Amino acid sequence: MDVQGFVAAGFEPVRECFAEILGRQPGTGLAFAAWSDGRWLADLWGGYADLGRHRPWQAGSLVQPYSVSKPFAAICALRLAEAGRLDLDAPVQRYWPQFRAPATVRHVLSHQAGVVLLDQPVATEAFYDWDYLCGLLAAQEPAWEPGTAHGESALFYGHLVGELVRRVDGRGVGQFLREEICGPHGLDFAFGLSPGMLAEAVAPQSTGRDQVFGEDNTWGLGFGIDADGYGMGGLGGSYGGTSTAGGYTVGFLTGTVGGSDRAEALENTLRGCLGVPPLTATGAG
Q1: Helices (H), ranges, the chain
Q2: What is the pLDDT averaged over residues 163-169?
Q3: Distance (Å, whole) CA 261 – CA 269
Q4: 98, 138 in Cβ contact below 8 A?
Q5: What is the C-alpha separation between 83 and 68, in angstroms, rounded?
Q6: Cα 204 to chain centroid, rounded
Q7: Pairing relationship of beta strands 239-243 and 3-7 according to DSSP bridges
Q8: What is the distance between the alpha carbons of residues 65 and 240, in angstroms, rounded to a whole number?
Q9: Measuring CA to CA, which residue among 22, 18, 57 is closest to residue 34?
Q10: What are the φ and ψ backbone dihedral angles of 198, each rounded to 5 degrees?
Q11: In terms of Cα–Cα distance, which of 284, 282, 251, 275 is closest to 13?
Q12: How many CA atoms within 13 Å lie on the side-chain side of 221?
């Protein structure tokens, strides 16, 4: 399958790695991009956009990134905090009076609120009824005392953060993202914060055993954090993140569900071109 896009001079191994992954991947295709020091180092895509392999993957092909979308919800809340409209250390009840868990906004953003499951079984259709599901989440007792542990709110993070955005601003999180963040930049998916707010967002908020997934990790305000940088991976294998140690930002998207090995192989190849030591373990998120 043909690889589309480009790599900067000296980063040809990244294209070769991408072609190798694409060649052995069944199903749909993938895309990878890397940015450093004000320039694109790589912008690649290839394969097919549908399982039937009728539509070629294009530069603008849409992808379900799974949990990679969580930081984008967090950015909306952080923008409101930056504007002084949302207090990170205020109780959620200040903005959402029906919310039963005694959590702060910071707890929600950093996966410390304990609202990670529903005691009441509900149909899948509940996810498409915003008000109904938010009502269930507001009534839910937390799985632990907020602020004493953390566990990724894998299924409900967008509703928890998005409802805070809606109650403060009046717009849903999707509309807010389009109008306040993506639209001004003319991008399909974008975010940006002042240096001060970004520093707070990627500062460790909770470190230790994740009560949902059972592994040790560290959460910032919507971002996974490790010694190399910050970012977020998705269940399907997609990943977006920034290496503060390496001075670059990468994005990997795929429509074929799998592990993180594909994104890690591309990122380590990029690091080799940059002269940065390879990652030795799964990155942030």
Answers
A1: 12-24, 70-82, 105-109, 130-139, 157-169, 173-176, 183-185, 195-201, 261-274
A2: 98
A3: 12
A4: yes
A5: 25
A6: 16
A7: unpaired
A8: 9
A9: 18
A10: -60, -40
A11: 275
A12: 21
Q: What's the pLDDT tens digit per position in 244-279?
A: 999 999 999 888 888 889 999 999 999 999 999 999
Domain ranges for the chain: 3-63+234-274, 68-219
At residue 176 the predicted structure's pLDDT band, cuts being 50, 70 and 90, is: very high
Residue with tokens 């959460």: 219
pLDDT of residue 188: 57
Contact 95, 86 (CB under 8 A): yes
CA dihedral 18, 19, 24, 26 (to 10 degrees): 80
Instruction: Pull the structure tokens for residue 26.
Output: 């069944």
Superfamily for domain range 68-219: DD-peptidase/beta-lactamase superfamily (3.40.710.10)
For residue 152, give Cα distances in angstroms to 105, 162, 218.
Answer: 15, 16, 10
**228: its two tokens:** 């190399």
- Residues 6 or more apart whose Cβ sits within 8 Å of residue 123: none
Residue 257 burial class via C-beta count within 10 angstroms: exposed 0-12, middle 13-18, buried 19 and up: middle
Ordered strands of the 39-46 beta sheet: 3-7, 39-46, 30-36, 248-254, 239-243, 229-233, 224-225, 216-219, 206-209
Tell me which residue of 283, 282, 235 sits closest to 66, measured CA to CA.
235
Query: Which tokens hold the place of 20?
Result: 């190798």
Tokens of 123: 């149909």
Q: Please give the structure tokens belonging to residue 164.
A: 């805070």
Residue identified by tokens 């890397």 is: 34
Q: Using CB atoms within 10 Å of the CB of residue 199, give its burial: 0 to 12 exposed, 13 to 18 middle, 19+ buried.
A: exposed
Q: CA 141 to CA 115: how far, in whole Å? A: 7
